[in-house]
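Why do we care about 3D structure at all? Because function follows from shape, and shape follows, mostly, from sequence. That is the central idea of this module. The next example makes it concrete: a single protein chain, its amino acid sequence, and then its structure expressed as tokens.
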Amino acid sequence: MNRTQINQADKVHPELDPTAIDHILATEDHLVPTSGFLASVMERVREEATAPPPIPFPWKRAIPGILLAVVVFGGGAFEFVRHALPAARGLSFPAPHLSAAFDHSLEQAAWVALALGVSLFSWLLSKRLAGRSGLL
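And the structure:
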């Protein structure tokens, strides 16, 4: 940062003036640790240094089980697809026959479903907007 950029920053943010910050830091009291702080830190460092290394994960024992699971699930997926494709070709879906009374109640159910969907959408939208502002 050159001097003109610093001067422009001072005009925008006068609280970032380096001389003011130096003055504030010079007038503050010095922090002095408690009497047992250094000893407790060094004791903790020694404990960490003498601790045994963590037990490594037994990959040599786990790899056969992982490979067996991959083979079992892969074989199951292959068999599912092999049996599902011919079965899906043989399916036929006839058009349902609806009576007039059922059609009327179906129309009412569609309006209720639409109202529920609009309510859910507005609730999710308001929750998302309020969540960003930190109100929730």
